[in-house]
Amino acid sequence: MNNTWHDNEPFYEDSRSLNLSHYVMAERCIQAEYASIQDEMSNGMVSDTLIYILEGGFRGFHNLTPKELVDEYVACEDRWYRLYETNSLPWDVFEDDPIVALEEDENGEVAHA
């Protein structure tokens, strides 16, 4: 599948006015879904997400069209931000995510012009 839109050029503005690239959106979706699976499994529940992936061979967020990815992202955005704000993401935020620069700026770590 030749996806020329798989670069890091922002194409979507999220609910907090951050301009996100396809890659950043996919990474956020992966984190939110992984956290959901992890939560379901640790609580002894059946993970519908994991079953869907294993049954149908989910092709991955990085392989979705821009429209498909936007639809998936909108569905998980609130969860991702809740995980971020409570330091509950399963791994560090992708370094090119604009929230990293925003966080650094709030901490006075970004060089000002």
How many domains in all? 1
The percentage of residues in β strands lies in 5-15%
Strand order of the largest sheet: 1-2
Q: Count of helical segments?
A: 4
Termini separation comes to: 41 Å
Share of residues in helices: 40-55%
Mean pLDDT: 86
Sheet with the most strands, sense and barrel status? 2 strands, antiparallel
Envelope shape:
globular
Number of strands: 2
- Catalogue the unreliable spans: none
| Backbone structural class | mainly alpha
Rg measurement, Å: 15 Å
Order of helices and strands: EEHHHH
Keywords:
113 residues, mainly alpha, two-stranded antiparallel ribbon, 4 helices, 6% strand
Protein architecture, described:
With 113 residues, this protein is mainly alpha-helical. It has one domain (18-106). The protein contains 4 helices and 2 strands; from the N terminus they run ββαααα. It has a two-stranded antiparallel ribbon. A hairpin with a 5-residue loop joins β1 and β2. The radius of gyration is 15 Å and the shape is globular. The chain starts with 9 loop residues before the first strand and ends in a 7-residue tail after the last helix.
Topology:
Layout (H helix, E strand, L loop, with lengths): L9 E4 L5 E3 H21 L5 H9 L9 H20 L12 H9 L7
Antiparallel strand pairs: 1-2
In short:
By secondary structure, the chain is mainly alpha-helical.
